[in-house]
Amino acid sequence: MIYAEILAGGKGTRMGNTEMPKQFLMLGNKPIFIHTVEQFLLNRRIDKILICCPEQWMAYTKDTLKKYSVNMDTIFVIKGGNTRNETILNGCNFIEENFGLHDDDIILTHDAVRPFINQRIIDDNIDGTLKYGAIDTVVEAFDTIVHSIDGKLITDIPLRDEMYQGQTPQSFNIKLLMSLFHSLTKAEKEILTDACKALVIKGKDVHLVKGEVYNIKITTQHDLKVANGLIEGDK
């Protein structure tokens, strides 16, 4: 089975003073997360879609999906976790409890606030994960990356040709991902910034697929303005 997990568990504090989490804000004529879900619904290879959101917003999420006439036949709204990786694991546990796990089951984890994902990226993630077991979506770093430990002095300037900016989806064989999550020590869990790092620190290969510059994450008010500009430009 091929699952997509839409990560809508964030509170969106960097968006500023808004009445709801950023994934529910309007982009064009519908909420951001609706745009995202619709892209995954278009892909016929995906069997089921999980939307992981804060518990207090689960009813609102379901009502919004119905309001915008989203086909709910393959969609499940579930409770997110306190962290990104906890949310991902909640999704995997839901799959195991409700559908069972098979050796070739994979999951595409994607930010609810990356609504400009396209079908090529989704298909590349599916193909890559079925072949390799773990995929990260990236774009080349166009700017020089400066490393600083204390935020005051340059520690290192890595070669730009070797640097990439991470996007999503991040996609995994579910059994592989769950086994690695469960094997992490408390110290290892504390340094995780995303699921791919769990594999990297355990010495597992994570293959790359090419993202797109416009596959942006809407995090701030500026991002939302840029996203609305992209929506208007497509009309």
TrEMBL record:
Marked site: Positions ribitol 5-phosphate for the nucleophilic attack: R160, K217
PROSITE patterns found in the cross-reference section: ISPD (PS01295)
Catalytic activities: D-ribitol 5-phosphate + CTP + H(+) = CDP-L-ribitol + diphosphate
Residues spanning the membrane: none
Enzyme kind, highest EC tier: transferase
Molecular function GO terms recorded: 2-C-methyl-D-erythritol 4-phosphate cytidylyltransferase activity; D-ribitol-5-phosphate cytidylyltransferase activity
Keywords: Cell wall biogenesis/degradation, Nucleotidyltransferase, Teichoic acid biosynthesis, Transferase
NCBIfam families xrefs: PRK00155.1-3
Stated name of the protein: Ribitol-5-phosphate cytidylyltransferase
Organism: Coprobacillus cateniformis
